[in-house]
Amino acid sequence: MITTMEREKKRVAGISVIAAFFLTGFKLVIGLITGSLGLLSEALHSGLDLVAALITWFSVRISDKPPDANHHYGHGKIENFSALIETFLLLITCAWIIFEAIHRLVSGNTEIEVNVFSYFVVLTSIAIDIARSRALYRVARKYNSQALEADALHFSTDIWSSAVVLLGLILAQFGWFFADSVAALAVAFIVLGVSWKLGKRAADVLLDRSPAPLVAQLTSLLNQSTGILRYHDLKVRTAGAENFIEVTIHVQPGLTLEKAHSISHLIEKQITEAIPRSFVHVHIEPDKHLPELSENS
């Protein structure tokens, strides 16, 4: 049975695909008509956005599948893998834009045709990107989805790159045609910044790097928990929207099995309430540095 979460994630990812398809075609047609490198770079950027949106749509359909015999920790990392693929696509975009922009500036072949459709396509792109980035961010934060967050980051960056292209078109209107190529270079550097952040986060998750903010939150929570004398071997890893947490706690020697279990159960409850979608494993050990409790304790 499809849950509300799965339905909402699939819906927002599907809308993103449709929007990317429309913008890619629109920018490409107007870019070819006007010869604007800024618009053509935006069309290529949107084309890769379309591929990225398709990858995201595919990944969110898989990531929420439950664990099975071959995937004991679920399928969440498909979201992180798709985010890494998006990074490589963005880098390819940057390489082409930078090459073509420098070629035009060096050759002096920067003249373009600016018309009302040039402005219309850029303003339409900005409006659509604002709407879909907000929708993607909302669902990504609600369900802790890195794939949707990557898409949202992608499209929020598109807003700034489109604004830069718009400025280039305005300057070209006054005869400063080189501004279009300069705008395209600015788009490339904006995309490079996004690629670095997106790729680093995806790689960290795929390599099981412990998330520092989450570790700090858990440390604070464990330090305040009652019944724990000390703890060690705190391990945290993430996969998609899921968090896997392990910790060894020391309790007073001589506690009954029921009492020790209730302490571990309380800790698991506190962690899962503070950090949604977490799977917690608590290992209990008696503290050897303290005397055992007597039966009357």
Q: What would you say this structure looks like, in words?
A:
Helix 1 (4-34) runs antiparallel to helix 2 and helix 4 (116-143) packs antiparallel against helix 5. The protein has 8 helices and 3 strands. With 297 residues, the protein is mainly α. The longest helix is centred in the N-terminal third of the chain and has 31 residues, at 4-34. The chain has 2 domains: 4-206, Up-down Bundle (Alpha-lytic protease prodomain-like); 212-286, Alpha-Beta Plaits, CATH 3.30.70. The radius of gyration is 26 Å and the shape is elongated. It has a 3-stranded mixed beta sheet with strand order 1-2-3. The chain has helices at 4-34, 37-63, 77-107, 116-143, 146-173, 178-206, 212-224, 257-274, and strands at residues 230-239, 242-251, 278-286. The relative contact order is 0.12.
Defining key terms:
297 residues; mainly alpha; Alpha-lytic protease prodomain-like; Alpha-Beta Plaits; 3-stranded mixed β-sheet; 69% helix; elongated
Instruction: Give the low-confidence spans.
Output: none
Quaternary organization: single chain
Tally of separate helices: 8
The strand line-up of the biggest sheet is 1-2-3
What is the level-2 CATH architecture name of the largest domain? Up-down Bundle
The chain-level structural class is mainly alpha
Q: What is the strand content?
A: 5-15%
Number of individual domains: 2
**CATH first level of the largest domain: which class?**
Mainly Alpha
Helix-strand sequence: HHHHHHHEEHE
Largest sheet: 3 strands, mixed
Helical content band: 55-70%
Question: What fold name goes in the CATH topology slot of the largest domain?
Answer: Alpha-lytic protease prodomain-like
